[in-house]
């Protein structure tokens, strides 16, 4: 069937965008002569080049001028943007706050891309329906029009139906068939089914469990979870070992749990703590009038939508393309040297207070010239990730449940793909769409995995993604219009045993001399939107408390 | 040995003692007995395929099935009788026969599907093919029995051959409806059985030393046949897609594949029928019932109405009814498919049917996605007619969601009413009430009603307004209606116990409850 005019135009636009982007991101092509030779696209790397300037700050120009602000925020991820929003809510004026972000746009791990066909996520892509006790988060969602009201009878929040993930939500490709839901069912032997049931019964119980301190055993944000020893000791052992000890050994259950850990932490059950492994399930306490606890909120741009809302909810300036590379103590506070990659100039920003909303390995480098007490080291296990956005003419389907939002292939080491067009209200499924394929490069040694990831070619990434997807979507390769790849060298924090409840995490979050504050999901040990939001809000409030005590 | 009874005629059970008296057998005899089993299974499956296809394509399943079976059995009798004329190398005959059965039987389903649309005398081809397959299959068992003749005692031979024959038949009758048709579909099932016959030929060819002299020549034919079947198997999907729209009872007078659907128009002396993706959209014989019931209960209650919105309904038939109200000044019709609206703006027969409604200057035809259009549009309408396809998939299910109805509410003028076609309250009772409950959840007063349309059965609609001020005899009805009167409207509001209200979930974008109900409700009727 000839593709329609609209499709043709989209196709032409895709090619054009590719050409336009070419000088920026570099347009790569797949190996000539291969079945992928028609595929090209961009290869990004969490701004590897810019980030690596930090390795060698001496090579950067000296500051040509100095600016002054009250509060400087370094890093425009979820945590930094939330801090910026919270400072505005707490009364700071726009000119008192400045946020610098090394990338050309804010968002960090939650940023999004867009082409002629659709917006699509580059990293984070959903927010589970939140625990209604998380009032601060709910207030943000209400301001963003995501939460539209409260049901008078139940008191439960009502969410915008266009943002609640439409049905069908999830499917799993197993034994040649797409089944509904991600928990393996098809062909699972009865003994294993019993184990699955036992595991979920245990989770239901843990979800209700409250510690002697009156706090939930598992809660988001993690800092509101119970401090009871009986739960905290779960943080000392690997999840996999705990599962073995509990007799949770069935291969389907274990694949599913590994998948879950890789999906949220970038690391399998053997590398994260039992506390974190259970937290993934037992801390999900979302409730809503028009959704259930397992539902999620999602957008074509993924959490890029939330980033945009966060950005829009505060007026203070955001300076993109700007790398903070060194912090100094001054008589009145701190100063940060910030290099602008576009103008190639360095500006010194003097601030009474600085919020470091950067990952710990960057924070450590930036604070190198401050007194040792300013920074408590926080070693983080961080798996690299690769994300491939495939713009496809169509998606040949196998038997079973139709295309869903989240599509996972049993037994693979990716975590599947999400369909950016899922929330579309169009009557037609046909026509081009964008799907986002995720793979954590989980390895015991993330450093080696990172090195290897940076050496892997564009063609290799595309080949790997398609080799996997072809098993469920035969003939997909020929339908690919464009493939854009992002290598997240530093991905996200993995809650390895001892990390969440160990001393280093708590210490690293403590402000220094009412001047230096820390906000990043690294400080939660669990990298999800809610934690980023919590960290940003906590840091902003600490800043304000410090100002009002007059000690700053 | 040439008097072999026709198979599958009831006969007394074979004595247990006979069956137990196992004669010493060599492995070649076992192979041949095994092939009886395969042959019997395939033979019955061909018969079932022909019967099923005939009732699919020609309708009236009882008649089609029994005449097909009769013809097939009779042809098998002829085959059995003909077997006496086969002489010389029986094994050679048998191998040739199996290849032939494989080809004729294997290709029977794809062939029948393909020729259906293109020949006028489909029945002739159908029965010719059934006859040919029957004759060939009828030859098989007698021939095999003659081959095995010397290897067994007669009573053993008869006992064994028929035991396998009947077990094969049992297996066929079970796997055909339970496994093969649901998993593979008719075309692939047919090809698969064909391949099995050819494999039987292959085993005979390569396991019996007597076949050496003609191994080469026949081996070639064998491989070629197998290849042909395999290739066809690979293309079965396309074939199926190609032939899907063809299963119509009447003469097909127009077909068109638009980017969104396949339109097929059929005609007989009495009526014109439109099918969308194989589903009947209307029959000209009784569509007036459907469209009068859709339009007049809501319109008679709105004598002041000026502006109407029609969603779906690209056939212009609802608009035809609307144009009977001279007070209407403007009608917007939103239908996704330009192929559909153009057909109903240009085809002479269809223009007669819809009274050129889509060419009327009061009517604006908009080809757009209804959901997006409703959300983006900013005008208000006194009346909205929602005539979408049934909620058979997730994309359409969104057009029946509470969110959609809330968006629709934004387009309704104060005091306005909408009406929603909402599938059959008899066949899909939960689906129907789910639509009504969803409208209520979206803040509407929902007034359900139903009417009987012979070619559809009981059909349901829901009136939706912001208040309860609706009366069945509020205003004058246009002259000339054939079905709707104030009394009809009152009667349509009454639901007998077998269609009365049942509790349901609300259809939301994040649960798509309706699509699930719909699948379950209609499931037993469509397969
Ligand atoms: C592939 C992937 C998928 C994910 N999926 C989900 C999901 O579906 N749902 C979910 O909730 N979470 C998901 N996450 C987790 C995600 O990390 C968090 O949701 C959240 O985005 C983390 O925000 P952050 O502010 O803590 O950190 P970051 O996103 O790391 O933000 C740090 C920011 O600081 C900037 N920066 C760094 N150094 C400097 C410097 N020197 N100067 C200036 N700026 C600097 C960076 O560019 C970045 O913008 C995913 C993560 C990845 C990698």
From TrEMBL, chain A:
User: What's one GO MF term for it?
Assistant: oxidoreductase activity
Do you know which SUPFAM superfamilies this protein is assigned to? FAD/NAD(P)-binding domain
Domain of life the protein comes from? Bacteria
Q: Which InterPro entries match?
A: FAD/NAD-bd_sf, TAT_signal, TAT_signal_bac_arc, Zeta_carotene_desat/Oxidored
| Descriptive protein name | Tat (Twin-arginine translocation) pathway signal sequence
Q: PANTHER family, alphabetically?
A: AMINO OXIDASE, PROTOPORPHYRINOGEN OXIDASE
Q: Lineage from the top down?
A: Bacteria, Pseudomonadati, Bacteroidota, Cytophagia, Cytophagales
UniProtKB/TrEMBL annotation, chain B:
Enzyme type, top EC level: transferase
- A GO biological process held by the record: spermidine biosynthetic process
Q: Where does S-methyl-5'-thioadenosine bind?
A: 261, 335, 369-370
The transmembrane residues are 31-56, 62-82, 94-116, 122-145, 157-180, 186-206, 218-236
Has the keyword Flavoprotein been applied to this entry? no
Query: Which coarse location class describes where this protein primarily resides?
Result: membrane
What keywords are assigned to this protein? Cell membrane, Membrane, Polyamine biosynthesis, Spermidine biosynthesis, Transferase, Transmembrane, Transmembrane helix
Q: Which GO terms describe its molecular function?
A: spermidine synthase activity; thermospermine synthase activity
Q: What is its EC number?
A: 2.5.1.16
Q: Record's Gene Ontology CC terms?
A: plasma membrane
Cross-referenced Pfam families: Spermine_synth
List the catalytic activities from the record.
S-adenosyl 3-(methylsulfanyl)propylamine + putrescine = S-methyl-5'-thioadenosine + spermidine + H(+)
- Describe its membrane topology: Multi-pass membrane protein
Active site located where? Answer: 387 (proton acceptor)
Its UniProt pathway annotation is: Amine and polyamine biosynthesis; spermidine biosynthesis; spermidine from putrescine: step 1/1
Q: Where in the cell is it found?
A: Cell membrane
Under the heading NCBIfam families, the entry gives:
PRK03612.1 (NF002956)
Family to which the UniProt record says this protein belongs:
Belongs to the spermidine/spermine synthase family.
What's this protein's name? Polyamine aminopropyltransferase
Instruction: Specify the species.
Output: Hymenobacter actinosclerus
Q: What is the lineage of its organism?
A: Bacteria, Pseudomonadati, Bacteroidota, Cytophagia, Cytophagales
- Gene that this sequence comes from: speE
